Amino acid sequence: MTRRLPVHVATAALALGVLALAPSAHAADKVDPAADKAAFQNYFTTKFPKLKLEDFVNGPYSMNEDLHKQWQEKEEFPPYEFSLEAGKEMFSKPFKNGKSYADCFPNKGIGVRQNYPYFDEKEGKVITLELALNRCREANGEAPLSYVKDDMAALTAYMAFTSRGKPMDIKIPNDPRALEAYRKGKEYFYTRRGQLNFSCATCHVQSPGERIRAEVLAPALGILNAMPIYRSEWSGMGTTSRRFTTCNSQTRAVPLNPQDDEYRNLEYYLSYVSNGLPISGPGARP
Amino acid sequence: MRTTTILATVLLIANGASAFAASEADYKAAYAAAEAANTEAGSLRNQWTTTAATLAAAKKAADAGDFDTAVTRAKEAEALAKASVFQATSEKERWKDLEIR
Question: What's the structural domain count of chain B?
């Protein structure tokens, strides 16, 4: 018995040591995108058991029957149609040097929306579709477009339309920088900011389907699959950049510059956890 | 009568004390403190629109020569900026509590 005592003490000390070295219980401390995606999608499908996974891309219109009817009626004469036409024309028109957007993208830019954003291992950063479009312009001697105005919305509308129905397919390469960009995007998504102390998740995870003033909040799952969107509230089209900066302002936070690293990482995270859901852009929202 | 006079004098003095006008120097000190706190919030990428609006209101009042209002607004702006710094600092860990797992 007395001989065993030192063994017990040593075992207890070892156990305490192991506990002390053990990582914290927070899932957020580990970066496991596949597990995140499964938990994220499971959360929404459990919260809204009547919805099919692909329905979530319709945002607030998926949340109840009346709104769904409104959406069906809207789709007969979609308000984004004029933008789609303008985008198709812009996309096809050559730059002054004779090249065009098609020269900057895989498959000439047709049916590739579902692969954006991607992680560029050469640059070590996330590249969004909006950023890639402006880089294409600049590489061909054209001035970049505003990230929040109609021309960018029109171009992305056309590119999204050519990908309609294709499942979002965001890759996270086995590169610590890509995992860090993804983790930072997740952190941004859940971080409260602004005087109203809201995170993206406050509205789009905790309260989808609920009203905030006159609006019905969209679920975060599939929220970017419908971008860009025509919003009745804006009386016009809006890009992903416009959506992010506006959300910040609405919580009384000073928005960052469109395509700052934080927003690129956020888009990477949010798109990845919606992998498998179809591209439905351009979309229409109340 | 004498008591009434004394009381009236005390009240006048008390009122007078609160009515001391803020000076331009008071405003400049209050504004600088608010701006410093807001710059710190900026370095944390977490400024609030209300801080900017309140700083602008302080400057507008000072430009109009109303330093009482200017100091009040600048102090409000400082409080808002400090709250945004607190938010950014505490959220460095707290965001994990909201995560879907």
Answer: 1
ipTM surpassing 0.90 = no
pLDDT tens digits along A143-165? 999 999 999 999 999 999 999 99
Report how far residue A164's alpha carbon sits from residue A154's, in angstroms, rounded to the nearest whole number: 15
B41: nearest Cα among A157, A256, A59: A256
pLDDT of residue A14: 40
CB contact under 8 A, A28 and B83: no
| Residue B14 domain-assigned (yes or no) | no
Instruction: Indicate the residue type of B19.
Output: A
Residue numbers of the domain that contains B80: 22-97
Residue B78 falls inside a structural domain: yes
Asked if residue B4 is part of any domain, the answer here is no
| B47–chain A Cβ distance below 8 A for any pair | yes
Q: Where are the beta strands (DSSP E) in chain A?
A: 118-120, 125-127, 211-212, 215-216, 229-231, 236-238, 283-285
Q: B95 vs A192: CB contact, 8 Å cut-off?
A: yes
B5 pLDDT band, cuts 50/70/90, is low
Task: Give the three-state DSSP class for A5.
Answer: helix
Residue A74 tokens, joined: 């809207």
Asked whether residue B64 is assigned to any structural domain, the reply reads: yes
Q: How far apart are CA A264 and CA B1, in angstroms?
A: 77
